[in-house]
């Protein structure tokens, strides 16, 4: 019985230490991002629309705005893998409502 308990504890520790789920490369996906928050925190996902050109990674000045307290609808945001895919003055930020990275005005 003690062996069974020890074996169960080892399995729990090993499963808890496994890396977050990494999807298989998707055809047409140029960039993968990590979800920094939300129920799938730490999971990677394809964060570029199909056939987005590879651009050098850029960092625009400013920082991402705080997450919205309520989700709104009405406009379609630009999906992005990094700031270089956003207009100057905007940042590529994780959108908690959409559960993906989008261009937002720098804060």
UniProtKB/TrEMBL annotation:
Keyword Metal-binding: no
One example GO MF annotation: peptidase inhibitor activity
One annotated Gene Ontology cellular component of this protein: extracellular region
Domain WAP span(s) in chain numbering: 57-107
Alphabetical keyword list: Signal
UniProt xrefs under Pfam families: WAP
Family annotation (InterPro entries): Elafin-like_sf, WAP_dom
Keyword Signal: yes
Signal peptide: 1-16
Protein name in the entry: WAP domain-containing protein
């Amino acid at each position: 019985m003690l062996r069974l308990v020890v074996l169960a504890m080892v399995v729990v520790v090993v499963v808890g230490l496994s890396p977050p789920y990494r999807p298989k490369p998707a055809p047409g996906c140029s960039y993968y991002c990590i979800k920094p928050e939300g129920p799938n925190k730490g999971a990677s996902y394809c964060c570029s629309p199909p056939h987005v050109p590879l651009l050098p990674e850029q960092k625009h000045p400013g920082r991402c705005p705080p997450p919205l307290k309520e989700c709104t609808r009405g406009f379609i945001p630009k999906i992005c893998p990094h700031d270089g895919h956003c207009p100057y003055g905007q940042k590529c930020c994780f959108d908690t409502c959409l559960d993906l990275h989008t261009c937002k005005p720098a804060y």
